[in-house]
Write a structure and sequence with these properties.
The chain has 172 residues and is an alpha+beta fold. The chain contains 3 helices and 14 strands. The protein folds into 2 domains: 103 residues, NusG, N-terminal domain (Alpha-Beta Plaits, 2-Layer Sandwich); 47 residues, SH3 type barrels (Roll).
């Protein structure tokens, strides 16, 4: 006669992390055996005067953890004292449960999200540094040397000019 193996029921919950410590919390929770998910976005940033694409959390200071809902499951208490974690998000005394459907949609969306660019082609920008400082320009693209190419109106004609991406700001 076969013995039945109990199935563990699980659900996703929301963890609030310390500022800019989502990856630290993810690493430490994973090390403890928790199944975690941190949705990331690709974002274009300027660092040291050069444009770079970096991965950033989709939701700053939050990540998801899958926990057993069985009464004989291991305690959730270690989550609170995990490095990088602030607390398990609660509504009153109950932990905030996240639906499996929402988790599935987040995973799908993360895979198809385009890189968030600093500027879009055709956007009006303000040159804040260099010989063209203070002039408005039309952003065109980023060239192979990671410089931004903008159109400046010089002597009533649009002229393509390469400038450092760090020298551009959104026009107000």
């Amino acid at each position: 006669m076969p013995t039945s193996v109990p199935t563990l029921s699980t659900a996703w919950y929301l963890v609030h992390t310390k500022p800019r410590q989502e990856l630290i919390a993810l690493e430490n929770l994973s090390r403890q055996g928790y199944c975690c998910y941190l949705p990331l976005l690709s974002v274009q940033k300027v660092r040291r005067g050069k444009s770079h694409v970096v991965a950033e959390p989709m939701f700053a200071r939050y990540l998801f953890v899958q926990l057993s809902t069985d009464e004989h499951a291991p305690s959730w208490a270690p989550i609170r004292s995990t490095l990088g974690v602030s607390q398990l998000v609660r509504f009153g005394t109950r932990p905030a449960k996240v639906s499996d459907d929402l988790m599935q949609r987040l995973r799908q969306r993360e895979q198809v999200m385009p890189t968030e660019r600093l500027f879009e082609a055709g956007e009006t920008v303000l040159v804040s540094q260099g010989p063209w400082a203070g002039l408005e320009a039309i952003y065109q693209m980023t060239d192979a040397q990671e410089r931004a190419v903008v159109l400046l109106t010089i002597l009533s004609k649009p002229v393509a000019v390469p400038v450092s991406a760090a020298a551009l700001r959104r026009s107000v």
